[in-house]
Design goal:
The complex is a heterodimer of chains A (about 90) and B (about 140). Chain A contains two helices and six strands. Chain A has about 90 residues and is an alpha+beta fold. Chain A has one domain (about 1-85): Ubiquitin-like (UB roll) (Roll), CATH 3.10.20.30. Chain B is of the alpha/beta class and about 140 residues long. The chains are: A alpha+beta (about 90), B alpha/beta (about 140).
Chain lengths: ~90, ~140
């Protein structure tokens, strides 16, 4: 079951400049895993050294942040669209 | 090299002054490294806004949509460092996105000063400084 994943501007260089890619999976976690298996350079920008999604990486199932659903275990169907949406943060000191 | 249209340079500096002593932040919109709009965005850090900035996902999507509507692209983001040098911090590095230009404006005692631009190294180990030109 191929599901669309919307790619934000800074990551498109790793998806052959596509703003949308497709991946298979029945949960958000499976989809993202299959996507990074195909587009391997995405891995280090989405996940930290512990294999967890980075805190400034937001994953939406349609209009809902998966943090408020079942996180990476959130089930998906072919009707759904996944979006990777950055937060942008920083500052002058730790 | 990152090129800023002269009004963009003025807008970023004005925003840094207006926000002092808090950090300003916004999106850089243009094409092929030439920025034609500095889009002000709210700093969502609340009480920590003097030392940190945050552009949330909703505001990010607004900026990306604006860039698309203009027929351009999101080139990066700017923020100010009140009473700190225009150099990226460890916080900036930890949370940086690849390919974006990160413009930092030093604001000393409320007055905008040095402006620099940085891009995340491919292995995420550091930033590399990028020349800035105002045209």
């Amino acid at each position: 079951m191929a599901i669309q994943i919307l790619i934000p501007t800074p990551l498109r260089v790793y998806t052959n400049n596509q703003d949308t890619v497709e991946a298979e999976g029945s949960t958000v976690g499976e989809l993202l895993s299959n996507m990074t298996n195909e587009y391997t350079e995405l891995q280090k920008h989405l996940y930290n050294e512990d294999g967890k999604l980075r805190s400034f990486v937001n994953i939406y199932l349609n209009d809902d942040d998966i943090r408020y659903l079942e996180k990476e275990k959130t089930p998906v169907t072919s009707e759904d669209t996944i979006s990777i949406v950055p937060s942008v943060a920083g500052g002058s000191c730790l | 090299m990152l090129m800023l249209r002269s009004d963009v340079d003025i807008d970023i500096r004005r925003h840094g002054r207006d926000s002092y002593p808090e950090e300003s932040c916004g999106a850089l919109i243009g094409r092929d490294g030439f920025v034609v709009e500095a889009m002000r965005l709210p700093n969502l850090m609340g009480e920590e806004a003097r030392r940190h900035f945050l552009v949330g996902p909703v505001e990010y999507q607004v900026a990306e949509k604006r860039a698309t509507e203009m027929g351009g692209q999101l080139i990066g983001f700017y923020h100010s460092h009140p009473d700190h040098p225009a150099r990226p911090s460890q916080t900036d590095l930890d949370q940086a996105w690849p390919t974006f230009s990160y413009v930092i404006l030093a604001v000393q005692n409320g007055e905008p000063g040095t402006m620099t631009s940085w891009r995340l190294r491919e292995d995420r180990s550091a930033f590399d400084e990028q020349a800035v030109s105002v045209t």
